[in-house]
């Protein structure tokens, strides 16, 4: 696990994270909370279709739950996906719900396969309020939210989180880098490479 975190530049990704924890969390939880949220996550273990959507990414993360939790960091425990929140007569669903043992907080994760939009933060604040009102126990701390999106404009994120009352962070994700389809035909296939090696060995 340590090698995985070092190779993935985990330290740098913790230092750069964008959150509103300085204003939304009690002083004694700020440091630990910042260590729990990265600026970017590497999902290179996922096998996605070319035109994947949020639901496909969610299911792939659940299928690879052990690797996903390792990438999130230590002390995270999986509670469920499409976690139902009942507010009045309406039902809402959180993409992935985790629990952080040291923070003693529910962690709501919203997955977005698009660039960050300010309205994502408003939706997540609603989910966190509902979690605190309906599911948080007396000995737990307020729920924390993480929006994981394809890309973000750092200034937009800063403005979106500035006046939010609920603690949340915005991160990006990356998938395994592959050659564009237009370039794949320019390279030999594995069979062609094997045949060439056989000829050289003869």
Q: Briefly, what is this?
A:
The protein has 202 residues and is α/β, with parallel strands linked by helices. It has helices at residues 2-7, 10-15, 21-24, 27-36, 54-63, 65-72, 118-134, 154-162, 181-184, 190-201; strands at residues 18-19, 40-42, 76-87, 90-100, 105-111, 144-149, 168-174. Strands 1, 2, 3, 4, 5, 6 and 7 form a seven-stranded mixed sheet that branches.
Query: How widely separated are the two ends?
Result: 43 Å
What share of the residues lie within helices?
40-55%
- Main sheet properties: 7 strands, mixed
Number of helices: 10
Give the mean pLDDT. 86
* Structure class: alpha/beta
What gross morphology would you assign? globular
Radius of gyration: 20 Å
The poorly predicted ranges are none
Number of DSSP strand runs = 7
Tell me the series of helices and strands, N- to C-terminal. Answer: HHEHHEHHEEEHEHEHH
Strand content: 15-25%
Task: Write structural notes for this entry.
There is one protein chain. The chain is α/β, with parallel strands linked by helices and 202 residues long. It is 43% helix and 24% strand. The chain contains 10 helices and 7 strands. It has helices at 2-7, 10-15, 21-24, 27-36, 54-63, 65-72, 118-134, 154-162, 181-184, 190-201; strands at 18-19, 40-42, 76-87, 90-100, 105-111, 144-149, 168-174. Strands 1, 2, 3, 4, 5, 6 and 7 form a 7-stranded mixed beta sheet that branches. β6 (144-149), α8 (154-162) and β7 (168-174) form a beta-alpha-beta unit.
């Amino acid at each position: 696990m340590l090698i995985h975190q070092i190779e993935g530049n985990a330290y740098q990704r913790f230092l750069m994270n964008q959150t509103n924890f300085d204003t939304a969390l009690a002083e004694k939880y700020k440091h630990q909370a910042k260590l729990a949220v990265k600026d970017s996550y590497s999902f290179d273990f996922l096998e996605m279709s070319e035109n994947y959507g949020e639901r496909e990414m969610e299911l792939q993360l659940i299928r690879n739950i052990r690797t996903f939790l390792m990438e999130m960091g230590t002390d995270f425990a999986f509670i469920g996906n499409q976690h139902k929140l009942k507010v009045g007569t309406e039902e809402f669903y959180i993409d992935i719900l985790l629990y952080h043992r040291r923070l003693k907080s529910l962690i709501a994760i919203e997955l977005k396969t698009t660039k960050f939009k300010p309205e994502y933060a408003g939706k997540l604040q609603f989910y966190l309020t509902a979690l605190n009102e309906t599911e948080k126990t007396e000995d737990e701390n307020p729920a924390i939210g993480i929006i994981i999106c394809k890309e973000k404009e750092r200034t937009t994120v800063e403005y979106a989180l500035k006046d939010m009352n609920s603690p949340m962070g915005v991160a990006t994700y990356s998938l395994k880098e592959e050659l564009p389809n237009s370039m794949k035909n320019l390279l030999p296939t594995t069979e062609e490479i094997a045949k060439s090696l056989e000829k050289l060995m003869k």
